[in-house]
Design goal:
single chain, alpha+beta, 6-stranded antiparallel sheet, extended
């Protein structure tokens, strides 16, 4: 209101000055009258503003004194969210006194507090108050707001240990959340009614600390000290959830009358020292997936401790060592469940028993497993790529020198068969290396637009030979099937892997069904932690009638070296290879299985708009056997590979200059009198890599053509190669013929 008073006062002064500047008369009198009225109005506005400010200050003092000792963080704001005052709890927790607005104070706690505060303020404007539970990195927080007179708003920020505390409003049992130093952070309505007030510390509730979980404790209630059964649950960040059951003294109920177990909402087991289950309440039975567990050994239901479970129970019964909760896996076939088990000692009829408090930790272990799995897969992928690179160098030297030996022997020589065996096994080893590269998604793909009906038709003859006589192979194609873009050779490998697995799952015979169909997704498809985006997809399914895959192993089938076959029957690389190929192609692979019914694998590839044409077989240009002519600079850090490649090119008639590093190659190129026709270089080398030195060399020799060779995938440097003119890629391992033909083809195109 004060800016308005200043404006009115300035107007009064303006009218008064104008009145003194004009001639005396009616106009002057009128201006003086207007100035007088405006001056009085400005004074009245100032008076009202002062009275309002005093009233607001008194109201603020009242609110400040009201919230000063509130344990919850409380903040009073104006209509625009500016902080008017805050209590000590808000200052300690959020440093609220340092910020101008409540949104700024809550920024470290909540990612986008402005939207939540605006939503709550709008509701409070209609209803008078509002609240909302917010999940933060520090746990669950409840934000509540009340109108505090005028335009002021009173905000309270209450912390909760976790979701259990928030759900406790509907729990009829008294429940409280206790933090470090036994500070009571939260009490539900039932607990407040039992105690008679909002307790600040645990010693106000239980004088004889520490609280004994699973046993009777003397609790100070509003009607006096009363024995209550206490059950303590371990929360997050050092917090504890404590449930109280009043009026259930052990002396009042015999051991076989522990019916209060049935009333507790917390999963509980009563165990003998030997591990025999004496009591199991309904929440625990639901978690363990069994109806009748009484009298059974705990080892029949739980596994995965890492040591003997009976030894663990004995240590807990004797109080040996530091007892803490353990994560175990539940033995159930319908789904995978992990639980967190906390053991507490109790005494019954002079015998030590154990009260086990169970907590569902499936989601936590699932997140942990996902993280560990991603780290493991990444590490194995890097290992596979590195191993494949080294093996490709070795295989290039082996197969290359074998080719050189074969040139000096004819089929009548006694050594010819041995050399042929070496050559064939080197090729088999190269195929295994390709599987490693496929798993790590680093193999070189040569995608083409293809019609899956033609691809499957070409593959049918081979598949029929693979499945044998006991198995029937049926194919069903969509007549309007869309085209896909993929590497045909790799796609065939995926299908063969799936068909071979289906055949092995049906030792007594059966039917394998391969179907293709068009699928249009209008919304994202969420499945197995993958999201398939909307659009047009081509779906290929391979289904069998075999033994199926157990549910607990279904999530592991794509892991490398995981196999359900006996030793010697499989390497465990088939499905992981298929997974790598499909993912690198931009597709998805899923599996459904039911024991004793069968398994179905689904492949989904993006549909391609270009129509696949039935192409004629590619004719590879025949290289003349006459001696070639040209100067080649060979750069290779692996001496055996360099020796083989040099001899192969020299045998074809090329003149070869060798360099074992990029730096040596650039030193050779300093002699401008030497005119090279082709550079043959490895991609990955110590020091400067292949593309880098070639780009440097082409600045002065732009017409030289390049052949890159590498044991890694072409995609690792595909973008760089695309910027190098007149360059081609030859993957390792390569044969003598492949190398010489590639170099001569580059020579002929220059």
């Amino acid at each position: 209101m004060r800016p308005h008073a200043g404006l009115v006062f300035c107007s009064a002064v303006l009218f008064a000055v104008t009145a003194f500047l004009i001639r005396p008369g009616l106009e002057q009198q009128a201006l003086i009258l207007v100035a007088l009225v405006l001056g009085l109005s400005a004074g009245w506005i100032l008076l009202m503003s002062w009275l309002d400010s005093a009233a607001a200050e008194r109201a603020a003092d009242s609110v400040r004194s009201l919230i000063e000792h509130d344990a919850a963080a409380s903040v009073v704001t104006g209509p625009n969210g500016d902080i008017v005052c805050c209590n000590m709890a808000a200052q300690r927790a959020y440093k609220a006194e340092r910020f101008d607005t409540l949104a700024g104070a809550l920024q470290p706690l909540i990612a986008n507090p402005g939207a939540i505060l605006y939503r709550l303020q709008t509701r409070a404007g209609v209803r008078g108050s509002a609240h909302e539970d917010v999940v933060t990195g520090a746990g669950h927080v409840r934000l509540s707001v009340h109108r505090a007179g005028g335009d002021a708003l009173l905000w309270r920020i209450e912390k909760s240990a976790d979701l259990v505390a928030r759900r406790s409003d509907t729990v009829p049992l008294p429940m409280l959340t206790v933090g470090r130093n036994n500070a009571v952070l939260f009490m539900n309505d039932a607990a407040r009614m039992l105690i008679g007030e909002r307790a600040r510390t645990l010693d106000r509730i239980c004088a004889a600390l520490p609280l004994r979980s699973g046993q009777m404790n003397d609790i100070s209630t509003q009607s006096g000290v009363q024995p209550c059964l206490a059950v303590e649950l371990e929360g997050i960040a050092g917090r504890r959830e404590i449930f109280l059951m009043p009026g259930l003294a052990v002396t009042e109920r015999p051991a076989e009358g522990w019916t209060f177990f049935e009333e507790l909402p917390v999963p509980l087991l009563k165990l003998a020292r030997s591990g025999v289950i004496e009591l199991c309440n309904p929440p625990a039975a639901d978690l363990l997936g069994c109806e009748a567990s009484k009298g059974r050994q705990i080892t029949d239901l739980l596994e995965g401790l890492g040591r003997s479970i009976p030894d663990w129970l004995e240590d807990a019964a004797l109080g040996r060592g530091a007892l803490h909760s353990e994560f175990l896996r539940v033995r159930r076939s319908d789904r995978e469940v992990f639980i967190q088990v906390t053991l507490n000692r109790a005494t019954e009829n002079g015998e030590t028993i154990l009260i086990a408090v169970l907590n569902d930790a499936t989601e936590l272990k699932s997140l942990e497993a996902q993280f560990v799995q991603s780290q493991k897969m990444q590490a194995i992928g890097q290992l596979a790529g590195g191993v494949a690179h080294d093996f490709n160098n070795l295989l290039t030297a082996i197969s290359g020198h074998c080719d050189l030996l074969l040139l000096r022997h004819d089929q009548g020589d006694s050594d010819y068969g041995d050399l042929l065996q070496i050559n064939q096994n080197a090729n088999r080893a190269a195929s295994l290396v390709n599987q490693l590269l496929a798993y790590s998604r680093k193999q070189t793909l040569r995608p083409e637009t293809m019609d899956l009906r033609d691809a499957m038709s070409d593959l049918t003859h081979l598949l029929n030979r693979l499945v044998g006589e006991k198995v029937v192979l049926s194919l069903n194609h969509d007549p309007t099937l869309w085209s896909v873009r993929a590497d045909k050779r790799q796609f065939e490998q995926v299908v063969m892997n799936l068909v071979v697995n289906a055949r092995d799952a049906m030792p007594e015979g059966g039917e394998i069904r391969i179907e293709t169909q068009n699928v249009t997704l209008d919304a994202p498809l969420h499945r197995d932690r993958a999201v398939v985006s909307p659009g047009q997809w081509v779906k290929i399914s391979v289904a069998d009638e075999g033994c199926g895959i157990p549910q607990d192993r279904l999530a592991k089938v794509f892991e490398p070296f995981f196999t359900t076959k006996r030793t010697g029957e499989g390497t465990g690389l088939g499905l992981s290879t298929a997974y790598g190929i499909v993912k690198q192609t931009g597709g998805f692979i899923f599996v459904d299985s039911k024991e004793d019914v069968g398994t179905t694998f689904f492949l989904m590839f993006p549909a391609h708009e270009e129509i696949a044409q039935r192409s004629a077989p590619i004719k590879i240009p025949q290289i003349e056997t006459t001696q070639a002519d040209g100067l080649v600079l060979l750069v290779e850090d692996e001496a055996p590979v360099r020796a083989f490649a040099s001899r192969a090119l020299q045998m074809r008639g090329f003149t070869v200059m060798e360099a074992e590093s990029a730096e040596d190659a650039l030193e050779i190129l300093e002699d401008t009198s030497i005119v090279f026709d082709v550079f043959v270089t490895d991609v990955v080398m110590p020091g400067m890599d292949g593309p880098s030195w070639v780009q440097e060399a082409l600045k002065t020799r732009p017409d030289v053509r390049v052949v890159f060779v590498s044991g890694y995938a072409e995609e690792d440097f595909g973008d760089t190669q695309a910027r190098i003119p007149n360059s081609v890629f030859l993957p390792k391992p390569f044969s003598l013929t492949e190398l010489t033909e590639m170099v001569q083809r580059q020579m002929s195109e220059s």
